[in-house]
């Protein structure tokens, strides 16, 4: 490849890469849950997550500028200073201005990164005065969330499996009739997987991110989340909240979040903890303060049916609002 062709090829390659990135970026990630083909981070729902995203963007711009700058230098060196075009090389070994510049400029870049970085770290560990304290205990393989200062009740959460989704749709009797004779194993798992696929869509649930008991928090309130574990090391993580905290047995760590929008937010255990690591999602419903208080009162009274109905009503109202907005946009 000639020199000119090489420059052309690298330029065209870069352009294609940039275009692909932009095209893929069009598949923006949703709020609170993953979506197929997404490239970006899930939308931010708390001040901490917003700061994380802003910091990420800043660093991405700096990295891109440095990478392009170094690439341009490399191309210049390859084209202008190879043995053929530059047969008698310069014998310079020192250049004070250049040496000061390539020491000072990187330091300045690091300072530009360090200031928002420390600000973000400070925000993550700020723990503003809490309106609500929840203690999350990780177990192999499910979560317990105890509302320490709000009735003291505990919500135990298990992931809904393909089998549970099918059972909820056709009932236990029909389930036994259809699958009872199939021996447990990969064939049965595959059957359940295929048969449950349309049911997840129908019920508006995400596979591996659907749970039997969702937890709720009020919108625009500061929540302190104490995180611990009863067995091995797990991790409590909800992307849109910018919260990620190791759950270590025998220790209590903490994270905080202040969700500013209502909706459903999913997260999961993010430390490889054992065979069902992939089966311990977290589903949080951010609802109005009134709905939260009603839900907490129902949970304290051990009326989980009523509690579920309250969250369901909130979800329906939210869906109706989204549908209205969508139709208004057309
Ligand atoms: Cu885990």
Q: What topology emerges from the helices and strands here?
A:
Blueprint lengths: L2 H23 L21 H34 L15 H29 L7 E8 L2 E6 L6 E4 L4 H18 L6 H18 L11 E4 L4 E7 L4 E5 L4 E5 L5 E5 L5 E7 L11 E7 L1 H12 L3 H26 L1
Helix pairs in contact: 2-3, 4-5, 6-7
The structure holds copper (II) ion.
Which regions are unreliable across 5 or more consecutive residues at pLDDT < 50? none
The largest sheet, given as strand count, sense and whether it forms a barrel, is: 5 strands, mixed
- Rough shape? elongated
What is the domain total for the residues?
3
Provide the succession of SSEs: HHHEEEHHEEEEEEEHH
| Gyration radius, in Å | 27 Å
CATH architecture assignment name of the largest domain: Sandwich
> Which structural class fits the helix and strand makeup?
alpha+beta
Strand arrangement, major sheet: 3-2-1-5-8
CATH class of the largest domain: Mainly Beta
CATH superfamily of the largest domain: Cupredoxins -  blue copper proteins
Q: CATH fold name of the largest domain, please? A: Immunoglobulin-like
The residue fraction in helices comes out at 40-55%
The total of helices stands at: 7
Strand content: 15-25%
- Hetero groups: copper (II) ion
Q: Distance between termini?
A: 52 Å
Mean pLDDT: 90
Number of strands: 10
What is the gist of this entry?
By secondary structure, the chain is α+β, with helices and mostly antiparallel strands.
């Amino acid at each position: 490849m000639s020199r000119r062709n090489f420059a052309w090829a690298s330029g065209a390659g870069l352009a294609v890469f940039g275009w692909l990135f932009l095209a893929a970026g069009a598949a923006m990630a949703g709020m609170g849950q993953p979506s197929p083909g997404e490239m970006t981070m899930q939308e931010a729902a708390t001040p901490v997550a917003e700061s994380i995203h802003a910091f990420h963007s800043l660093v991405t711009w700096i990295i891109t500028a440095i990478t392009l700058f170094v690439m341009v230098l490399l191309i210049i060196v390859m084209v202008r200073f190879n043995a053929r075009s530059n047969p008698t090389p310069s014998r310079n070994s020192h250049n004070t201005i250049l040496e000061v510049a390539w020491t000072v400029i990187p330091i300045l870049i690091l300072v530009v990164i360090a200031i928002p970085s420390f600000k973000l770290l400070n925000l993550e560990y700020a723990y503003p005065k809490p309106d609500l304290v929840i203690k999350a205990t990780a177990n192999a393989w499910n979560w317990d969330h105890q509302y320490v200062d709000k009735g003291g009740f505990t919500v135990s959460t298990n992931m809904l499996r393909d089998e549970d989704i099918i059972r909820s749709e056709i009932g236990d009797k029909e389930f036994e009739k259809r699958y009872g004779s199939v021996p447990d194993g990969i064939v049965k798992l595959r059957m359940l997987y295929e048969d449950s696929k349309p049911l997840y869509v129908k019920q508006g649930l995400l596979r591996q991110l659907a749970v039997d008991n969702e937890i709720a928090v009020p919108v625009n309130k500061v929540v302190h989340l104490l995180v611990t574990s009863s067995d091995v090391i797990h991790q409590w993580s909800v992307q849109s909240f910018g919260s990620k905290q190791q759950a270590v047995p025998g220790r209590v760590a903490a994270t905080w979040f202040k969700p500013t929008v209502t909706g459903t937010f999913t997260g999961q255990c993010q430390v490889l903890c054992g065979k069902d690591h992939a089966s311990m999602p977290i589903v949080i419903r951010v609802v109005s303060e009134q709905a939260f208080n009603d839900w907490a009162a129902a949970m304290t009274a051990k009326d989980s049916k009523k509690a579920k109905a309250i969250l369901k009503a909130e979800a329906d109202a939210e869906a109706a609002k989204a549908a209205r907005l969508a139709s208004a946009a057309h």
